[in-house]
Amino acid sequence: MENERLLNIIPIVRDAISDIEYLESIDINHELRSITDNEAEVKAQNLTMDRKRCISNIDKAISSLDEVLEYIRRTGKTEIADEYRDSFLDVALIMAKKRHPYNRDIDKLIRRVNDIICLCGNDAKKETGLQVPASTMATTFKNKIIAENKQEVLNKLHSLIDGKRGKNVALVIIASIELGLIQKPTYREVQREFGEIGAESGYHSYLNKDKFSSNEYEGMKKRLSK
Length: 226
Fold this sequence. Notes:
mainly alpha, single chain
């Protein structure tokens, strides 16, 4: 059953956390110290293979969580979100973030798990008839995408924004708004989706196309349109 298959993603994400911790601990220079040249070559090859395997597993976990989120939204079945909440997967990710604060993959995993858990929480509140204040409802950057091909647009934005800060992030956002790809997101929504993007004041100061040259602005619009 599809539901059971998607529940098996929980251990995949836990494995990804372990892979992240392993990648953070690798010190190739230390690993290769005091061994022969032949041993060093073999060791280097093994470490490279380990790194590729870990990165592949982390990417698989991130895309798998997107699949879970899409399934819940498509079917309206939130039982699987209960399992994610009860597994304390969000707690495990937060603890991993404390140990490795600069690893962007943990940010991505945290956001996706929280999106799934929030669907469960919001649905449960609707069933009880409780009114949920708008200020407490979790909103995501993906909710602001108004283009039909939402996931394609999100992937494109990640390719342009991941690892960028301030001015460079703002340029992508305002160009996307003008092209009708997204509605204007809040700073927090952008930060939750893309990770560390610099100070809020710096980001807001560049949310104006007049801050950029014509070549910069039109160039970004062309890149978004490809």
